[in-house]
Amino acid sequence: CVKMEMGIENIPNLEVLPFAHTGTEALECIQKEKVDCLICDLLLPMLDGVELINQVRQYEDLRIIVVTALWTPSIIQAVRELGVVDAFPKPAPMDKIRSLLQNPPVKKILYSQEEQAFYRASQWMDYLGMSRRLKGFRMICLAITYASLYPCMMDRASKGVYPAVGQKLGYSPQAVERNIRTAIESLWVHADPKRLYRALGAIVAEDRGKPTNREMIAYMAELIRQEPPDYILG
């Protein structure tokens, strides 16, 4: 088991299993382990979230929480009809998830690797001061997630990260690039400069101006591969 800085690491007696990379890995883990709770997305490699939920419904004591970027009324209604405990849009509302995990108490949980990366990305964006009201907030968090898990996607962002984010959120690659740019521009206007310099260092040097989308995503992807510093967790 691993320690996970997801806002749930301090729940007493909660065991967090190593992250599942795919729907297939999650299914195999549930079949082998006595898992009390599964937190998953709907878009998973190899075995999507809906099919995963259908296959694990035989485990009567398993509680399922869905956290997804595919947040439309019809999709969420369909997911809830599958018998999940609850469903939330990304970024995950960890206060609500903590409450669900504690009432009644969960002892063993399986969480996808993508959820961990997305949560850390959103932690960093919150710390820097990016507004969650911007469309680009979810887009840049998801872009950072993909770049951290699949570095090859950053070789050509316009052919890798932007299409992947757009496919998941229902936007064109051009709209993803444009909204991420807008979010970065807004951040540089409204954020505390000291926080930017503290967190981002060289890419915000005064003689450089604002970083490009690619620079920002790649730098943040490297940061979220590491344990978050105390000033992020606090």
- Overall pLDDT, averaged? 80
Beta-strand level of the residues, as a percent range? 5-15%
Largest sheet: 5 strands, parallel
What structural class do you assign from the helix and strand content?
Answer: alpha/beta
The secondary-structure element order is: EHEHEHEHEHHHHHHH
Distance between the termini: 23 Å
Strand order in the sheet with the most strands = 1-5-2-3-4
Count of DSSP-assigned helices: 11
Shape: globular
Number of strand segments: 5
Helix content: 40-55%
Task: Describe the oligomeric state of these chains in a short phrase.
Answer: single chain
Low-pLDDT runs of 5+ residues are 1-5
Roughly how many Å is the radius of gyration? Answer: 18 Å
Q: What are the key terms here?
A:
234 residues, alpha/beta, 5 strands
How would you sum up this structure, described in words?
The protein is α/β, with parallel strands linked by helices and about 230 residues long. About 50% of the residues lie in helices and about 10% in strands. The protein contains 11 helices and 5 strands. It has helices at about 25-30, 50-55, 75-80, 95-100, 115-130, 135-150, 160-170, 175-190, 195-200, 215-225, 230-234, and strands at about 15, 35-40, 65-70, 85-90, 110. Strands 1-5-2-3-4 form a 5-stranded parallel β-sheet. Strand 3 (about 65-70), helix 3 and strand 4 form a beta-alpha-beta unit.
List the helices and strands and how they pair.
Layout: E1 15-16, H1 23-32, E2 37-40, H2 49-56, E3 63-68, H3 73-80, E4 86-89, H4 94-102, E5 108-111, H5 113-128, H6 135-149, H7 161-169, H8 173-190, H9 193-200, H10 213-224, H11 230-233
